[in-house]
Amino acid sequence: SSGEESDGLSAFRKVKANDELKKNPTARGPVNTSRSEFTGPTKDTGVLKGKRVLRWTFKCKHCGAIRTFPRTVDGPNAKWEDEPTKPRTSNLAAHLRSECKEYANKQAAAADCEEGTQPEHEYNLPVIRDIMAEFLKKGELNPAHNLSWKGFLKLFALWILDDDLPWTTGESPMLRDLFKYLHINYKLPSDTSMSTTLLSLASGADFRRDDYFMAMTMDNASTNDEIYRNVSRYLVSIYGTTSHPDRHIRCLAHVLNLVVQAILADLKEADAQNEDPDEPLKNDDKNDDYLGNKDTPIHYDVSTDRDQCELEAQRDADLNMEFFDVSEFDDEIIEGIALEEEIDEELKQLGLTSPLKKVRNAPPLA
């Protein structure tokens, strides 16, 4: 942008110029935007060479200087717009350009703040961008601006809010040492000062945004589901918001808990049916499988297995040739017995033992 448009007021001037053109489409040339820096015009009278003259008076908003122009219309309802030929007001612009130091300082401060600064892209929260834009507009971020404790506290609070920092940040020893190193005379604010400042900022800030959405977090109780449905209908009917019932997400942990509780309840009812129907359950001990088997060893012991011992005793009796006549066995049984004895003999010569022998001869577990 050009130097003339870097004062931060170019957009405002264009809007005012368009409004003036709409009011007076026959006017030629650019609209005098200097009038916005003056109050008036107001009707006034003066004396020139002993004669009473009518005039319009403009007063500078920055320094209070008065500039007058001849007036040709009179009456209680006379207005500046009623002048058939409006006087030239170039001296208003000349005053702002070369005479009013206050106006020049404000313009320079606004230009310095606007140059290279785009608050809409720097901050995290939209409300912070709005507040910082006001800072830039007022020139409070200009180094030539008079520093104040109120301004420092406000900026410090905005930093805490925008970066989501704890309110006790001002109590950090390292931050205190940094301020001391930079010769900053302001005292770091406490968490109480932060809460008070943020509360005052929130009361004057506009947190409403078109891109905001509302979410409700509730328990899985049916009462809360009814509340959700009523709130949704209310928002749709009053504000025309969009409702998305398909986005109603239930808590997975609660759902699993309810499922497990239902399964356990069914198991408990099944156990209760196996009990004497005439004797109601007094407690859950009757359905506790652990209590009846708590003395059972955890590890399997072959020597204490009754079924296994009976099976081996029967096998040994069948293989005892002193009680049975080998001629009574089938040829396949005899061949199987001989093969097993041959395998045991070979393993014995190799110093090995068959898996079945290992299980049989293993000592009982303690």
From TrEMBL:
Ranges of Basic and acidic residues composition bias in the record: 279-294
Principal location listed in the UniProt entry: nucleus
Keywords from the UniProt entry: Metal-binding, Nucleus, Zinc, Zinc-finger
Ranges for region Disordered: 1-43, 270-294
GO cellular component: a single term: nucleus
Subcellular location field: Nucleus
Gene Ontology MF annotations: zinc ion binding
Organism domain of life: Eukaryota
Keyword Metal-binding carried by entry: yes
Entry keyword annotation includes Metal-binding: yes
PANTHER family with a match to the protein in the record: ZINC FINGER BED DOMAIN-CONTAINING PROTEIN 39, ZINC FINGER BED DOMAIN-CONTAINING PROTEIN 4
Listed name of the protein: BED-type domain-containing protein
Organism: Ephemerocybe angulata
